[in-house]
Design a protein that fits this description.
The chain is an alpha/beta fold. Helix content is about 35%, strand content about 15%. The radius of gyration is 16 Å and the shape is globular.
Length: about 190
């Protein structure tokens, strides 16, 4: 089975995340999508990051019983900071029956050369790229293992949601309802 790994902080998960995952599942050869909640991205600051268990719980609420989608906390048990190569190595050994591919935004492709074992990653794994608006693609986008997926542009971001909540704005329709409810009950980002 070919599985797309959608890594992210999901801080918080929003409808854009789910729309992108759904598009990649339906319009590529990926058979299932696994959302991998990252405890610490080496390229991001941790100051606004909710506790791992809360971001994981909100994502579970968001995905619900959809069998083509799985929420994974695998990186919680791996050394920090999280490196994609370490997670892929672990998953490939644990699930040899599956083929894993990466799902990422084109903004991640720009700094891909800085990733740990980037050359090995691009040689051994397919990378499906969601193009961001107004972002030029680097030369690495021409690599045979890189597929640019012409998905609809979605302009929802987790930072927009966090900032809106601080401003006491109602963002109920920007998030999956169960995840929104969890977030509000816990008073996150207020």
């Amino acid at each position: 089975m070919k599985i797309g790994l959608y890594f992210g902080s999901f801080n918080p998960v929003h409808n854009g995340h789910l729309m992108i995952a759904n598009y990649f599942k339906e319009y590529t050869d990926l058979e299932k999508i696994w959302f991998v909640v990252s405890p610490q991205n080496p390229f991001k600051q941790r100051d606004t990051l909710l506790a791992d268990r809360h971001r994981y719980a909100m994502l579970l609420e968001a995905v619900g019983e959809q069998s083509d989608y799985l929420v994974s906390d695998i990186e919680f048990a791996l050394p920090k900071p999280s490196y994609t190569i370490d997670t892929l190595t672990y998953l490939t050994e644990k699930y040899p029956q599956h083929t894993f591919a990466l799902i990422m935004g084109s903004d991640n492709l720009i700094n891909f050369h800085k990733w740990k074992n980037a050359d090995f990653l691009i040689r051994n794994y397919q990378i499906y790229v969601y193009p961001r608006q107004n972002k030029d693609l680097p030369d690495i986008a021409k690599h045979p293992n890189v597929t640019i997926v012409n998905a609809p542009q979605i302009e929802i971001s987790a930072s927009f949601i966090r900032e809106s909540i601080k401003l006491k704005k109602n963002v109920i329709f920007f998030m999956p309802q169960n995840a929104y409810k969890y977030m509000r009950e816990m008073h996150f980002y207020e």
